[in-house]
Automatic annotation (TrEMBL):
<feature type="active site" description="Proton acceptor">
    <location>
        <position position="246"/>
    </location>
</feature>
<feature type="domain" description="O-methyltransferase dimerisation">
    <location>
        <begin position="19"/>
        <end position="93"/>
    </location>
</feature>
<dbReference type="GO" id="GO:0046983">
    <property type="term" value="F:protein dimerization activity"/>
</dbReference>
<dbReference type="Pfam" id="PF00891">
    <property type="entry name" value="Methyltransf_2"/>
</dbReference>
<dbReference type="GO" id="GO:0008171">
    <property type="term" value="F:O-methyltransferase activity"/>
</dbReference>
<dbReference type="InterPro" id="IPR036388">
    <property type="entry name" value="WH-like_DNA-bd_sf"/>
</dbReference>
<keyword id="KW-0949">S-adenosyl-L-methionine</keyword>
<dbReference type="GO" id="GO:0032259">
    <property type="term" value="P:methylation"/>
</dbReference>
<dbReference type="InterPro" id="IPR012967">
    <property type="entry name" value="COMT_dimerisation"/>
</dbReference>
<keyword id="KW-0808">Transferase</keyword>
<dbReference type="Pfam" id="PF08100">
    <property type="entry name" value="Dimerisation"/>
</dbReference>
<dbReference type="InterPro" id="IPR001077">
    <property type="entry name" value="COMT_C"/>
</dbReference>
<protein>
    <submittedName>
        <fullName>Methyltransferase family protein</fullName>
    </submittedName>
</protein>
<dbReference type="InterPro" id="IPR036390">
    <property type="entry name" value="WH_DNA-bd_sf"/>
</dbReference>
<keyword id="KW-0489">Methyltransferase</keyword>
<dbReference type="InterPro" id="IPR029063">
    <property type="entry name" value="SAM-dependent_MTases_sf"/>
</dbReference>
<dbReference type="InterPro" id="IPR016461">
    <property type="entry name" value="COMT-like"/>
</dbReference>
Amino acid sequence: MSVPASVQASPQDRDRIARLVCGHMATRVIGTAATLGLADLIGDEPVPATELAGTVGCHPGALLRLLRAMAALELLVETEAGVFRLTGAGVLLRTDRPDSMRSFVGMTTHPAMLDAWRLLDGAVRAGSTVFDQVFGTDFFRHLGSDPELSEQFNTAMRQSARIAAQVLPSAFDFGRYGTLADIGGGNGTVLSAILAEHPRLRGILFDTPDGIAEAEVPERCERQAGDFFTAVPAGADLYLLKSIVHDWDDARCASILGNIRGVIPEHGRLLVVEPVLPEVVQPGQSSLAYLSDLNMLVNLGGQERTGADFARLFAASGFELADVTPLPPARFSLIEAVPA
């Protein structure tokens, strides 16, 4: 078959394919760097590879090769032969920073997150998660049985919540409402930040007993434990779901949204914080949301959604999509829905 002249491949295209195919190797590099704690050991000043090798108990020559791969991936700079310092990306692997991504890296490179990806073709053929084929149970039940992964997951969620807590309080007029219920709100980081900026607003933090066990919230915030598939607290006129909807398929989301619709007043509002995919993939667009979407397919059974997907999801549960506002960082949006 002849190839049309308009679809000729360039040397850069060949290089792109090679880099994409080797992407799993880069994943292992950053995962190993996180496991060894190299960013914490390097700290603020350049450090010789030989010194690091002695500290972490690694073969000096092999560690040098790992560090040079990290430099090629722009996590480090080799300031002179065998001496390395962190880059702006590399410092995010440190554990002593409020913007640390160390736990996100640990969670994402954990075998429980990677092993089922070998069956991506099966997930695409069947249209359903394959995690249980590898581990014999669903992701969240497995999470409960793996303390290391659970700690990485919970810490990564807390770190994500801190970012949302910086932008969400000023992204919406919370002061127009009386009580905000954060459904699946974990340790209350986001809710506490909103309440701090809106002193007349009351709060309800709702999560599993384990989820709210370490929550620290203001006195005007009530903590309630439960299962959002069964029921959610009444008594609020504003409901928040952050990074909840994408974990579940439409049927499970309908249960959560239906429970909220059953208790929200007619003048109330539902806020959902999630990525919103465009209706058509645009050239140069970040691949992160699409890779996250496939991860939801492979491991959790959920999905990332377009604006039209959210509109249909809301309509099936008695809501109407009202507005979508991109949030910094641009990967997330504030999605507003009202009772229909």
